[in-house]
Amino acid sequence: MKIKVFKFLTKPYTVVLTMLITPLFGFIDRNLVFFSALGVAFLILWGSNYNWKRFGFGEKLTLKTVITSIGMSFIIFIVFSLFIDPLLIKYLGEFNLSSLNDIRGNLSGYIVIMIIMWLFAAFGEEFLFRGYYMKSLAQLIGNKDISWLLSALITSAYFGISHLYQGASGIVSVGLWSLVVSLIFYKRRNNLLLLVLIHGISDSVGLTLLYLNKDHLLTDWAQRLF
């Protein structure tokens, strides 16, 4: 049974089917889209006898990786907060972050969301979108450098659209952020841990600003420049 499931799920076209079929679960519940696709990825991991290298976890966590992730997270945060997001808000409207409003000034809610974020956003989304979707699509269309770049564009657009609930600005911002992270993975295909840390650190900063009700400070200042 295990071998049959693994063989089917690792057929080249299965990643495309997964990306097309799992969004249908959104008619039941938005979260089912993510968890159904994550389930497919974990079944492949299980069938491979937990070969984490298959998904890009080829390097151990090192101090250099941690320092690099902090530096990259800081640069990405500044660029998006001071330049990209203010422009998107000006032309596409505010981000819809109503789903996170409960953590504003709520310490227990903030801690719970932070734990969930590291498990399912930082680790889960990188495992799914970069480790499974991006890598499998790149292999499907040739496994060359141009294949990886095209896969980065496709998965980033897909990732952005999956954040439809954040409004037009959210879709574009998340899509562009995903493209930046995907390009890092394009260069460091065996170090998905780096992306997990970048994702987690970036979201941690954002959630902390929301908790402190200071999430508009940077963008409000930057908007004066445009």
How would you describe the overall organization of this protein?
With 226 residues, the chain is mainly α. It is 72% helix and 0% strand. It is built from nine helices and no strands. The chain has helices spanning 2-9, 14-21, 30-47, 63-92, 107-140, 145-161, 167-187, 192-211, 217-223. It is globular and about 50 Å long. The chain starts with a helix and ends with a helix.
Uncertain runs with pLDDT below 50, 5 residues or more? none
Q: Mind telling me the C-alpha Rg?
A: 18 Å
Structural class: mainly alpha
Beta-strand percentage? under 5%
| Number of discrete helical segments | 9
Order of helices and strands: HHHHHHHHH
Main features:
single chain; 9 helices; 0% strand; 226 residues; mainly alpha
